[in-house]
Amino acid sequence: MSRLTRRGFIATGSAVGAVLASPTIVRAQGKVTVGMAWPGMQDAVWSTSHKLLNEFAAASDTEIELVFTAADMDVAKQASDANDLISRGVDVLLVFPIDSKAISSSVKRARDAGIPSMAFLRQVHADARDQADVFVGIDAKYQQLSSARTVFEKMNADGAEISEVLWVSGDIRDENSRLRGVGLQEACDEYGATIAQDLVGNWDPQQAAAALAPALKAYPNINHISVASDVMMSGVRQVLQDAGKWAPHGDENHMYLSSVDVFPIGLELLRSGHLDADTIFDVTGMCRTAVELMPRLAAGETFDSDVLIQGPVFTPANVDDPEMQAQLWAT
Amino acid sequence: MTAKLHMQGVTKVFPGVKALDDVSISVKSGEVLGLVGVNGAGKSTLMNVLGGIYRPDGGHIEIDGRRVDFARPIDADAAGIAFIHQELLYFPSLTVAENMFISHLPTGKLPFSVDKRAARARAQASLDQLGSGIRPTARMESLSVGEMQVVEIARAVAMGADIVIFDEPSSSLSIKEKEALFNIVRKLKAEGKAVIYISHFLDEIQELCDRYVVLRNGQLVGSGDIAEVTHDQIVEMIVGQVVTERAARTRRKGGAPMLSLEGIRREGILDGASLELREGEVLGLWGLMGSGRTELIRSVLGLDPMDGGRITLAIDGDSREVSHDELLERTAYVTESRRTDGLFLDEAIWKNISSTTLADYARGRMRVLDKAAEAGTARSMIDRLKIMTPDHHTQAAILSGGNQQKVVFAKWLNRKPDILILDEPTRGVDVSSKGEIGELVGALAEAGTSVLLVTSEIEEMVALADRVLVLRDGMIAAEMLGEDITETALMAAALRTEAAHA
Amino acid sequence: MVGEMVDTSQTYVPRDSGVLKLWHWLRSHPALLPVVLSVVMALVFALTVPNFADLRNIMNIFGQLGFLGFLCIGMTYVMVAGGIDLSSYTVVSAAAVVGATVMVATDSTVPGCLLMLVIGLAFGTINGIAIAYLRMVPFIVTLSTMVLAEGFAIWFTQAQSVYGLPYAFIDIFSARILPMTWGISARPVGIPVAGIAVLVAALILGFVLSRTLYGRRVYLTGANEETARISGIRVRRIKFSTYVLAGLMAAITAMILTADLGTATTAMVRDVRLMDIIAATVIGGASLKGGKGSILGSMFGLLFLTMLSNAFNLLGVSPFIAMVIKGTVLVAVIGLDVLRAK
After folding, report:
1. A24 pLDDT above the threshold of 80
2. Chain C residues closer than 8 Å to A129 by CB
3. Rounded CA separation A20/A14 (Å)
4. In 3-state terms, chain A is what percent helix, strand and coil (to 5)?
5. What was the pLDDT predicted at A6?
6. N or C end of chain A, less CB within 10 A?
């Protein structure tokens, strides 16, 4: 079983509310300085979360100063950055781990210096020596699970046969990609489907296309492809167009597609009816929650469980609802 | 008849030095003027003034009796002055014709197009005029240095130059190519061009030139008809002091065999060359460029591949077969190009001098170098070889050619070698350093060092060698001893080679 | 064909003025630049950056030198001998993941450390043989081994981090000894073992490079390989040895980093740090043409870069401005090198 269920709990909207409404809240006195050990700025999630954290911090009741560092995806550099932030004497260390195990030593060093730490998006590995004081993340397993589940429900309603699914994963080094695979597996188990083949897309449309094209020939009867992120959808579209299977829902050549993240291309394909389900990567919710927790962590509050954000599933039917549109960040 | 070119009272001052002091020269059409002088005498400065690179601080230039003013090199170009440089500038991957007309390519019918056919035809015409067999379509990189030079001259001819200046044109040519060059110079003369010929090789000057001009310390110290002056008189003007007549000297016999090479072979270059170098002799290795002189040495020392042969070395009286590395460690090797593989140019003199015997300065278990001892050695070598330098910390790169060569000798003498191999030991060295190096080589041989001498300079071979082996086609073809070693005999040996090739 | 064809521009021109003397001296002591640069910057930061001169931060910087210091030492040897090693940072990962896997499997430190050494030395040997004996181009060879080592590490681990290392190993290599309280540090601060290790290595290997027979041979090989060879220096052996040394340094880095991070991963050190290593070495006086550089210079070059990024992190200024400054300094130093060569 994944560490999520062992150690944490699934934070639905109400669960987050419960944590936030906890009676043990102690407001920190004065300004809270938070050191951010970030992987870099080149990725949309890194830069967006940096931007949203600053926005929420500026709007916060407590005065929060964010000190930003970037490690360029270098594990050792992130450790150095964390050391620098500890030396600076920040009140909270906020880490976006490049490596879920290596970050543990930075968490330990912070703890030794009396600084609480918060892991953002990627949890410190469960088997590592020292754990962050709180983890705010996306429920990656839930994303793929909810997206695939929505598609299976739709297939049932359409009377389509549910048998095999092709899985286009992200970077196999990435924990999020692995967890999404677990989510897909769980959805398959629920609906009696099997994963025909794991394809490594590496978050890259070209690589996804290169992996998918031969697999589609090997499994001609496939009617559901689950993609770890819709950033790879242009590659999937290319392959399906070549195979004559690129058609919106309702067309007899329609291929059922479930994906995750709701990047612009995902939105476009939801609207065109090609993509059937897309669970948002809820950076906005995560950043809002992280900022809310900062003063409490600085004040010495402890947390027993992870805070996992579960974003809603976007479908062609709800994509243009105002409340769904309000969730978007990557457009 | 007025002079084609006349330079009147040219003076050029650089900070702290008067490079040219009221120098006047003139050259007529159909005349070859020899310009000689030691390094730093002002030849280059004078030619740079003529070429529009420097503006003179005094004096002026006249062409066909009219005063001209060269502000830029292109002005000299336009006035019909062409320079044939020692180091040639060219585009290796372009053809001969393209190189010749690179700045003046004939344009084709379309805009920006090049009429290659016209370029080829014009190139062919110029090359024919010089009696050269080079094809205009050949790639520049496929030519020998001598052929490239011919292309450079053909280019000057094609551009309509009336005044052609040769700056050390024969430095890197083989004997055969030199002969071809001389013929071209004579052709230019016959066609009425005014030629200035710069060389240190007095024999060339005497053979080619009608008149001579000698510069020393920026001043004109002598000029006149070449027929009215002797070799030694010119040398006297150049050096500024009387040098003794080349004395006929007794040639050393040499003692016990020191180094024996037997049947040295290298694919395509060496074909079973054998020789024996004796104790206390200067053994000359004579032959054309490409006859395998340098290659023989490099192969034996393990610097280039060797496909067969035996190397026997006398070590402490016992002769035994040795490996390349063993030989290299016991040999001093003054290479033909000191800047490439003779010196550590960016390093201080003392580091250069100790480089051959570094282990001797290592102390203790950590093998720490005794820098004071290294510096001591360097200082004593600087004194012994009269190396002109502010101190032993000076970078080798900023020394003059002669002093650089002395540093090369110093680093090898420091090893107290039994065998000294010299490959063009005085190339690019001024006259006085050259004399000192010659004396040093003689003294070393007297003291028992075995010297193997490779030189392209016939005078040097005659002056230094006790015995000469003629190398031809990768084999030893002849041996000359004692009185037989004369310039005539050596030239004859070389010419025979040429005949054999023809 | 003999004669004075010496270029007149090469003749000696006496340099008398004070500025020229200083220039001459600077030129013969290239390590001075990074030393001065570091000292000046340390003073400026100590006065302007809060907590910079705090003991905790000083020890933090000192410990960070242990991350890249060994790689800088290896790079200095290779560059002085006229080569370059692009592979060292991925060799760190390759050695780390294999050694760590063995440590996890055996739950003991020594076999894993030995294996790290073996792998580091093996890659150094491959580089050395290809470059010194097969006469292949250093840039291409080490670029290939860089890719090879990274591919090997990813294949070996399936891109998963190796963790669960013996605490004994972690505690030895990431230890901080002699805890003390000084300045504003509320809690005692120890001296990082990694920093001490790199200091000791720099002193020893710096001495070897600058003072011993072997070191001089490394310099002369880099200054002019052909001349060195003819002068009786076994240049192939020397070049080979520098790559092996670089491999050894990568192995030691693997131990220190693995212990410090508590895990071995394929992304331990990334290409951006390769730039830091080369930059530190070049700021320290090394030239890509060989024959120049020193351990002292490289260490201060590294200290300079480390302090720069530390100060910016303390100030909370964008790390990307630090990158701009690093790049500017590097270009300036290379420009200075070109000027010095004139």
Report:
1. no
2. 167, 170, 262
3. 10
4. 45, 20, 35
5. 31
6. N
In the numeric block, which tokens belong to residue B395? 């970078």
C74/C71 Cα distance (integer angstroms):
5
3 state DSSP class of B271: strand
A321's CB contacts (< 8 A; 6+ apart) are none
* Contact residues, chain C, for B335 at CB < 8 Å: 230
Q: CATH number of the domain at C30-341, please?
A: 1.10.3470
The verdict on a CB contact (< 8 Å) between A72 and C54 is no
Cβ atoms of residues C325 and C305 within 8 Å: no
Contact across the interface for B329 and C232, Cβ inside 8 Å = yes
Phi/psi of residue B364, nearest 5 degrees: 75, 180
Q: Which domains does chain A have, with CATH numbers?
A: 3-139+282-311 (3.40.50.2300), 140-280 (3.40.50.2300)
CA dihedral (B455, B457, B463, B468) positive or negative: positive
Which subunits have 3 or more CB–CB pairs within 8 Å of chain B?
A: C
- Distance, CA of A269 to CA of A259 (rounded, Å): 11
How close is the nearest chain A Cα to the Cα of C263, in Å? 5
SS3 content of chain B, % helix, strand, coil (to 5): 35, 25, 35
Distance from C-alpha of B37 to C-alpha of B215, rounded to nearest angstrom? 5
Residue matched to tokens 């609207």: A271
As a whole number of angstroms, the distance between CA C217 and CA C239 comes to: 10
CB C101 within 8 Å of CB C162: yes
Which pLDDT belongs to residue A10? 38
- Disruptive mutation site among A65, A69, A73, A85 for chain C (greatest number of C CBs within 10 Å): A69
Contacts of B200 in chain C (CB under 8 A): 2-5
Q: How far apart are CA B452 and CA B444, in angstroms?
A: 12
Residues of A with CB under 8 A from a CB of C: 41, 65-70, 72-77, 79-81, 83-89, 98-102, 104-105, 108, 112-114, 125, 127-129, 171-173
The closest alpha carbon to B130, from B70, B183, B73, belongs to B183
CA nearest to B95, candidates B148, B172, B153:
B148
Chains A and B touch (3+ CB pairs under 8 A): no
Q: Is C85 left (phi over 0), alpha (psi -120 to 50) or beta?
A: beta
The sign of the dihedral angle between the CA atoms of A163, A168, A173, A179 is: negative
Element (H, E) at A325: helix A322-325
Mean pLDDT value of segment A124-150? 91
Sheet holding B58-63, edge to edge: B17-27, B5-14, B58-63, B66-68
Q: Provide DSSP, B429-478.
A: --HHHHHHHHHHHHHHHHTT-EEEEE-S-HHHHHHH-SEEEEEETTEEEE
Q: Do A102 and C263 touch (CB under 8 A)?
A: yes
Spatial separation of the C-alpha atoms in residues B332 and B342, rounded to whole Å: 11
Task: Determine if the pTM surpasses 0.80.
Answer: no
Domains of chain B as residue ranges with CATH: 5-239 (3.40.50.300), 257-341+400-406+416-501 (3.40.50.300)
Q: What is the pLDDT of residues B216-274, one digit of tens each?
A: 888 999 899 999 988 778 877 876 654 443 445 678 888 889 999 999 998 878 888 99
**Among C93, C209, C11, which residue's Cα sits nearest to residue B402?**
C11
Interface partners of chain C (CB pairs < 8 Å, 3 or more) are A, B
Q: Name the DSSP letter for residue A310.
A: -
CB atoms within 10 A of CB A19: 19
First-residue to last-residue Cα distance in chain A: 35
Which of B358, B408, B434 is best to mutate for the C interface (most C CBs within 10 A)? B358
Give the least confident one: A302-306, B221-225, C1-5, C211-215. Answer: C1-5
